[in-house]
Amino acid sequence: MARISTLIARAMKRLSPENTATPFHPSLFMQRSLLSLAIMLAVSHQALADNVMTLPDMQVTAGKRVQSQDQTDLALSVASQADLERANVYASGDLERVFPELLMRNTGASVFPSLSLRGVSSSDPYNAPVGIYVDGVPQYLGTFSQQLLNIEHIELLKGPQGTLYGRNAHAGALNILTRQPDNTPTATLQSRFSNLHQQVSATGSTPLVDDKLFIQGTVYHDDTDGELTRSEHHGDSDNGGGNVGLTFKPNEDFSLKLAYARDRLTSYNEQYLADATYEKRRASVPLLESVYVRRVETSSATLDWNLSDALKLTSITSLQNYRHERLYGDLGFHWPETQRTVSQELRLSTQGDDRAWDAVGGLYWQKSRSHSEREPDSSAPLFGVYGVADSRIDSSEKAVFGEFTWHLAPRWDLTLGARHSVEKAETDYTQVDAAFTPGFVYSGNDTFTSTTPKIALGFQATPDMRLYASVSKGYKAGGYNRIGAITPSAVAYAPEKSLNTEIGVKSSLFDQRLWLNAALYRIDIDDVQQFIGAAGTGTQSLSNIGKARSEGAELSMDWHADEATLIRLAGTVNRNRMLDSERQGNSLTYTPGRTLRASAEHSFYFDGLLGEVRPSVGISYTGKHYFDVDNEVSQGGYSLVDARVAWLPTPDLEVALYGNNLGDKDYRTYSYLSGGAQFSQPGQGRELGLSTKISF
């Protein structure tokens, strides 16, 4: 055991931040990593105890049909509810602690998140590079900040997933899957109280008619205390909501689920600190507060129908109404916005074992209507700087998609896929003349057509090792900016396209006690979409800035060292750069060169009321990344430490002490330059708290 621990420590050292000065070479990184893994594989099986627990062979739906996780020919990370708990992940903004390859940052308030994966990013919350789905229902990125309750597991698909998931999966896709009800009534009460959060929630399900009709629901409230001084509310947020689902299942072959969710978020956390006051977390100038109020309602109907033992029909219909009201205090304007999106997906998929081929295919339709306004506030200190503006955008999408997997031989699989989509967009944009915003009127409409193919080859080298290679295209649609464009030429932007090549390996060792995954990738991007313009002024706009290339490597390890110990390690390295513009050689925004996550958990078992005590600790490293395409403002590499000690007197009761950012590290989630000075959004400081969970 000591020998294996030493080998793991050496492998971690190669990924540690002390080595960040080394030039990036993906092939060299992978060679060294695979060498470390090969040494581990050479260790005798006797080095592990005979009674260790095996890691679960999880079933996933990444390919829109049920598959074993280790049989998918794509890079995939999965986190269970237990994984979320041991990493203190209570909301979507905490997911970096289980998916270190996914960078998530608020570029202001919580309603404007920015996601980055494999060096592909976008600062635009309206056109995200990562598709987000909850039980198959597509989510608008502005709704991403949400509580994670009643979770079955979460799947992170890495690399372009446009074939099955469409235009918003240019860098990958995030599938959030919730637990489904059954004949056993269940209820769970949870709470956490810390110096930053006061959260309570309740989830439950019960059969209304045994074996046929089930109801489930969740309610929650999370009050976040800001860390900034000089203001009553700066940095605060208040989030509450709930959902309810009704599932009709007359037999094993048919299921219909009707679901409704409602959420409200009030956020005061858009506050930028000047460097002179940053470390003291003092608001630079205590003028008017900026506040956002976000309201979201989502309704959906999901039908699953086994037409036969070999064929399944799925239909997902959804309606999402989104509204936010933004009072941009110091700059003196009110910014209400609404969006209504209707979508329908209809697909057929094969099912069952021992087939010569498998396939999934279907149709997708979506229609969206948005309305944004800018209304100057005469009571604000900077009233008159920005004029009245009104933006209306209507868009629609129609697509046909499919993937066919041919099981060429007992150990070979060939997958061919494609998606063809037609998107239409039209806009009416009016802006009144003011000091910083010249007046103009703009109307436009356009049609964007795309075909995104994919080919993947999988080889089962041994019963416990699978190799794969894939080539695919990614696509992010063009469109029109909402409020923010300051000239007619800045309103429209063109599609972003990419070509992705990837090779990878998935393996399980020691009777599935150790799982190892690795991948090498390269993504060539045309017409990169990034924000340009003066940050912090409300006048930035999305624009195409040329070609870019992203290449890198990923490595992960899950190891049940014995029946009570779980060790995890995940690391990425990435190099991305602009190729053919005035910014040649610059990095894209929010794309760190290295990330690392290492964690360990051990359970102590006692007789009687003491039950189980389960301490865990984790450390996350995020490398240097830039906040603007000109690479003028950045955040250097930093590490965050989290820990948790859980006590389970019974399997249904858990009390835990937890801490995040235990070193109280200062880091920035967003920065911009104005008048030669840098202003920054601070990351969350040290959090110490107590959480409880009781299940019935």
From TrEMBL:
Q: A Gene Ontology CC term for this entry?
A: cell outer membrane
Which compartment or compartments is the protein found in?
Cell outer membrane
TonB-dependent receptor-like beta-barrel domain spans which residues? Answer: 294-662
Q: What is its main location?
A: membrane
Question: Where does the record place Basic and acidic residues bias?
Answer: 224-237
For membrane topology, the record states: Multi-pass membrane protein
Please give the SUPFAM superfamilies that the UniProt record associates with this protein.
Porins (SSF56935)
List every stretch annotated Disordered.
Answer: 224-244
The TonB-dependent receptor plug domain covers: 70-173
Q: Which InterPro entries match?
A: Beta-barrel_TonB, Beta-barrel_TonB_sf, Plug_dom, TonB-dep_rcpt-like
- Cite the Gene3D superfamilies for this sequence: TonB-dependent receptor, beta-barrel domain
One BP term from GO: iron ion transport
Family to which this protein belongs: Belongs to the TonB-dependent receptor family.
Instruction: State the protein's name.
Output: TonB-dependent siderophore receptor
Its lineage opens with:
Bacteria, Pseudomonadati, Pseudomonadota, Gammaproteobacteria, Pseudomonadales
